[in-house]
Amino acid sequence: MTDDEHDQWIERARDAVRRGMAKAQQKFGIGAPGRYELDLPTATIRFFDPEDHPRATARLQVAGSWSPTGESWMWGWANDSLPAAATQALAAVRERGERDAVPSLTAGVVASDEGDAWSLVSLAADVIQAECVYRAAGPKSHLFLLLFDLRKS
């Protein structure tokens, strides 16, 4: 894959993620005030509104985590603390990186700023056809989740 082809792929993937996130927000309130519950062993997430009523559920894959202080991205498949159920689909992302000689898709940890993290998760979403991306922000790192089969609770 040439650099131009790679850049075009990133732009297409990021556009698709933006559209998917907008649709998830409009249809299910994803990203609106409320809370969420992750169940990594079953690779699912539940979203709740501010009154704690169930809003939506989805299957998930943990694409990876981004550390603002370390300016690094760690792929979910490289994180030993994550259960296999939450990362198994990412094998296709790694395989695509090997096939197309894209090192950022095959290295377990990649130097990245936040924009790079969004690009990487967007490529992953494209490869495994996620409906949308959800970023779970934490005090030290942000977990990027790929969501599938989003439905009202």
TrEMBL record:
Top-level taxon of origin: Bacteria
Pfam families, sorted: DUF6882 (PF21813)
InterPro entries with a match to the protein in the record: DUF6882 (IPR049249)
Protein name: PH domain-containing protein
Species annotation: Roseateles amylovorans
